[in-house]
Design a protein that fits this description.
mainly alpha, two-stranded antiparallel ribbon
């Protein structure tokens, strides 16, 4: 009789939604088939969902980065708040709360 191959799934690293999906598949198809199917599904999923980059933040970073790297501009740990005023831009130190 051939040996049954079992797939080990580490449930401690799965997200809450993935655990729900695994349990639902196990109820529907049984543990052996469900573990194989879930492992295959899990390998096909993207590792991390990347958020689209904010174009305004990218432009600010692109503009300020050369000055920071050449030590012409120092940004303190708390950073700054940049906002629009009436016909001008207001830059204030961020308040630490």
């Amino acid at each position: 009789m051939p040996k049954k191959s079992t797939v080990k799934i580490d449930e401690s690293v799965l997200s809450k939604g993935q655990l729900r999906k695994l349990n639902a598949v196990r109820k529907s198809f049984g543990s052996e088939i469900a573990d194989k199917a879930f492992a295959q599904w899990l390998t096909e999923q993207p590792r991390e969902i990347a958020e689209p980059e904010d174009m305004n933040a990218a432009l600010v970073r692109k503009t300020l980065e050369p000055m920071v790297m050449s030590n012409k501009l120092k940004i303190p740990r708390g950073g700054y708040i940049v906002r629009r005023g009436r016909g001008r831009i207001i830059v204030e130190p961020a308040r630490s709360e």
